[in-house]
Structures
1.
Amino acid sequence: MHDKHRLEPGKHIWLTDLLTAGKGLYEGNKATAVTEFTAARKELIELQNRFYAEDKHKLLIVFQAMDAGGKDGTIRSVFRGVNPQGVRVHSFKAPSKVELAHDFLWRIHQVVPARGMIGVFNRSHYEDVLVVRVHNIVPETVWRPRYEYINQFEKLLHDSGTTILKFFLYISKEEQAERFQERLDDPQKHWKFSLEDLEKRKFWDDYMVAYEEMLNRCTTPWAPWHVIPADQKWYRNLAITRTIVNTLKELNPQYPENTDDLSQVVIE
Ligand code: ATP
Ligand code: MG
C-alpha cells in the first residue's frame, strides 16, 4: 500500500484517472484499518525517537489539499504522541508584507527541518503555483518558472541530507461539500469555515488543472508526490502513516552509542 500512491518521475498522470476513495485498494475494512493505523502510529513514535536521538537525517513532509481536504486532521491524527521536540509543524498562510518583499522560497527555506528533525508543512511553497496561479495573483511569466525553481530547491535540500515526502490529499468535490456542511452545522467547527473557501470552490476545475500540472512537473526522483485517496479518513491516515514509517525504516535510525565507558559508572 505504501508506494501504491507514489507518482513516478516522467510518467504523466491525469487526476481523473486517480481515486479519491481508497476502499477498493485496501484488503480490510474500516475497523481493520483503524487497528493497523494504531500499530503503525506506534512504530512511527519509536522510529521518530530514534531519528531525533541519532541527529543525522532530516525529513520534510509536505501536505497540500483543497480546503477541507484534511490537512489539519491528518497532522493531528498521524503525529499524535510523537516527541514534540523533534517535530515542527509549519502552516503557510497568505504571505505577509515582509514575505512578499522577498522571493517566494525565502519564508520556506527558513523553516526547513534541521538535522534530527521532522518538518511538517501544512501548505507550502506549492501555494505559489496553485492559489497564485488560479487567481492570477502574479502573471504567468512569474509563476511558470517556479516549477523549476522548486525542483532545484528541493534538489538542494535533498543533496544536503533531507528526505522529502509530498502528499496531495485528493478529495472529491462532493466530499468537500459534505465537509463544508458539517462545519456549518456544528458551532464548534464554525471557526474552520470561511466564505473565502466557497469562493475558491467555484474554481474547483481550475485548481485541478493546477494540481495536475504541479504533480506532473514536480515529481522528481528526489522528491516524489503521493496522491492519497482522502475521502475516507481511515484510509488516508493508514496510507500516509505507512509511507512515513517505511521511509523512516529505510533511513534505519539508531540510538547513538555513548563514547564513555559506562560500565564503570557508579551513581552515588
Ligand atoms: P484550514 O484548512 O483549517 O481552513 P488553511 O490552511 O486553509 O486552514 P486559512 O488561514 O484558512 O488556513 O487559509 C490560508 C490561506 O492562505 C489559504 O487560502 C491559502 O491558499 C493562502 N495562501 C497560502 N500560501 C499562499 C501564497 N503563497 N500566496 C497566496 N495565498 C497563500
Ligand atoms: Mg481555510
2.
Amino acid sequence: MTQLVLKPGKARSLARRHPWIFAGSVDRLDGRARPGDTVTVVDSDGTELARAAWSPESQIRARVWSFDPQQAIDHAFFKRAVAASVARRQTHPWLAGQQGVRLIHGESDGLPGVIADRYGKVVALQLTSAGADKWREAIVAAIVQATACEAVFERSDSEVRGREGLEPVTGCVYGVLPDGALTIVENGVRMEVDVVGGHKTGFYLDQRDNRLLTGQLAAGRDVLNCFCYSGGFSLQALAGGARSVVSIDSSAPALASAARNLALNPQLDASRTEWCEDDVFKALRSLREAGRSFDMIILDPPKFAPSAAYAERAARAYKDINLSGFRLLNPGGILMTYSCSGGVGLELFQKIVAGAASDAGVEARILHRLGAAPDHPIGLAVPEGEYLKGLACQLG
Ligand code: SAH
C-alpha cells in the first residue's frame, strides 16, 4: 500500500490520536494515491502509525480512519464504525426518545468528514472529505443496516467540500423520501425538517437541549428570539408558558417555515407570537427606540467567524448584538446568547459578553454555560470539534 511518509518530528499529534495530517507534516508519498485513497502513514524512520484517507487538494492532506496501521479500510470497517456510532446514541437517556438525532459527528465519532442526522425514518448525510466521498456506498449501506431507515438523502453541499476539491452532491442515495413534509417531535413540539433545502441537513439538532432549557426558563416571560430560523426556540418558549414571543429573522423562507411549525402545534397559543422579517442588528435598535423591553432574549446568530482569522470582525458583531440585548432586558431578565463560530472560543466569547454587559451598564451573572447536545460529542483528542458555545446570563 502507498505510504505517506511524515517529516521528522511530525508524528506527535498522531500519537495523541489527533486524526489530521497537515500538508506541512508530509515529507512525501511513496507510491501513488488518488483523492480519497487509503494510505499507510509512516514516521520518518519507517514505523507504521495509522491508516488514513489521502486528500491532495486540502491543507489537511490526510485524515486518519484508524490508528491501527494494520486495519483494513473496507466495507466491514465502515459497517462496524457506523454501527458503533449509532449504538452510542442509544445509551444516552436524553437521546433515547428523540426522533431527530445526529448519528455520526465526523472526527469525534472516528469518521472524519461524515455527518449523518436521523429525522424519523429519513437519514440526511453529509460527506465533506475526499475519503468520506470515496466510501459513500459503504457508508450508506452501513447506515441503512444500522438504522433500518427508509431513505438516505445526501446533503453534501457544504462549502467546505471545495477545500477538498469536491463538487457539491445532493439527492437521494437510498430509498425515496416520504411524500409531504417530513416532521419530527422534539420535546413535545412538532417541527418540519426540510432535508432537501433547509440549513445544514435541515434542522439545528445541536441546540435541542438549549431549546428545552429555554422553554423551562421562559414561563411567564416576554421573550425575544433573534435569528429564529424555523422557530425552534420560539415554539419551545411558548410551550414552556412564555407570555409573549417576538421572533426575528431576515430570511422569508425561514419565517414561512416557522409559520408552518406554529400551525403544526395547535396546542400552542399562536396569538402570543409576533414574527418580524428584519435584520437583527437594525431590529434591536428599532425595538429600543420604540421603548420595548423583554424578560428573556435569545441570540443564536449564524457563524460570524468561520475561522480564527475572522475572530476580530466577529467579535465586533457579537459585541454589538449582546450589548443591544442587555439594553433591552428588564431587571431579572435572562440573555441566552450563543456563538457557533469555531474561530471564537468560549473564553473569548465570555469576554465579549462581559464587555457588552459592562458597556450596557448592567450587572449579570452566568446561570448556565451551554454547548451542543450530546449527539454532537467532542473528541477529547479533537478539540477543533467544539464550535457551539452559549451563556445563559441573568441580570441582577
Ligand atoms: N436558532 C435557530 C437557528 C438559527 S440559524 C434554531 O434553533 O433552529 C441563524 C439564522 O439567522 C438563519 O435563519 C438566518 O436566516 C438568520 N440570519 C442571518 N443573518 C441575519 C441577520 N443579520 N438578521 C436576521 N437574521 C439573520
